[in-house]
Design brief:
Layout (H helix, E strand, L loop, with lengths): L1 E8 L16 H13 L6 E2 L8 E10 L9 H6 L6 E9 L11 E9 L13 E2 L6 H11 L1 E4 L14 E12 L2 E8 L6 H13 L5 H8 L15 E7 L1
Parallel strand pairs: 3-10, 5-6
Antiparallel strand pairs: 1-3, 1-4, 2-3, 5-9, 5-10, 7-8, 8-9
Length: about 240
């Protein structure tokens, strides 16, 4: 039976999704819960391998169980075995051909920034606090330049050695409510570190340290020297489309 889960997690105390020896990760915690419940240790496939400190509202995971298990009971049973910062929101049986990573049609991320903040305490683990007031219109214009199909090699690396770095970004929306700014990005797929580098680039545009021509240069294969990797805590994987 091929099982699909939708998982939410608060990533502050984890070293990302992927299992690592001697370090707490989301994959290791979920695998341990599945073993405790079913006695099986199936390989887990996730829609995306989030970095250390990154959060998720709609991470999608699939795995195959050898023995039948009432799928409607999986969320409650797994949550009883998981720490409170990981939650299985939904479980269902899917066709054997379903793969959480390769069946995905689009991935949605959001990055939160709190501007005009010399020192922040509230929600510091969920946003990047910057001391300046950012130029929202400039950030929106820069985001529009990133939409479409481009070679994003300046913004990240392929998850596969030697893999191509061309990606299609469906849209980049930059919005603000008071001092809070959200960068919402949707794409068919992302490179490692791509959303955090997009956020870093847009913040530098908003600080007026960079120009729109700089964004164009990055997309034309220009040097990525000085391209900032935004802190992980502002990033959340929102959902995955299939």
């Amino acid at each position: 039976m091929n099982v699909k889960l939708i998982v939410e997690y608060e990533g502050t105390r984890y070293h990302g999704w992927q299992a690592q020896a001697g370090r707490p990760t989301i994959e290791s915690a979920l695998r341990a819960a599945i073993l405790s419940l079913t006695g099986e240790t199936p390989p887990l496939t996730a829609a995306g391998r989030t970095d250390a400190g990154v959060h998720a509202l709609g991470q999608v995971v699939n795995f195959t169980l050898e023995r039948d298990f009432p799928v409607q009971q999986l969320p409650g049973a797994l949550n009883a075995r998981l720490a409170s910062d990981i939650s299985v929101r939904h479980a269902e049986l899917v066709d054997d051909s379903f793969n959480a990573r390769y069946s995905a049609r689009a991935r949605h991320y959001a990055y939160r920034i709190r501007q005009a903040l010399p020192r922040g305490a509230y929600q510091r683990q969920y946003a990047w606090g910057v001391p300046e007031t950012l130029d929202l219109a400039a950030m929106q214009a820069a985001g529009a330049r990133l939409e479409g199909t481009h070679d994003f090699r300046s913004f990240g690396r392929s998850p596969r050695p030697g893999g191509h770095t061309v990606r299609r970004v469906r849209d980049v929306k930059v919005s603000a409510t008071g001092d809070w700014i959200t960068i919402a990005v949707a794409a068919d797929a992302f490179l490692y570190g791509m959303v955090r580098r997009i956020a870093g680039a847009l913040v530098d545009i908003g600080r007026r340290k960079r120009t729109l021509d700089w964004i164009d240069g990055l997309l034309d294969g220009g040097s990525s020297l000085g391209l900032r990797l935004a802190p992980p805590q502002g990033l959340v994987q929102v959902k995955v489309e299939y």
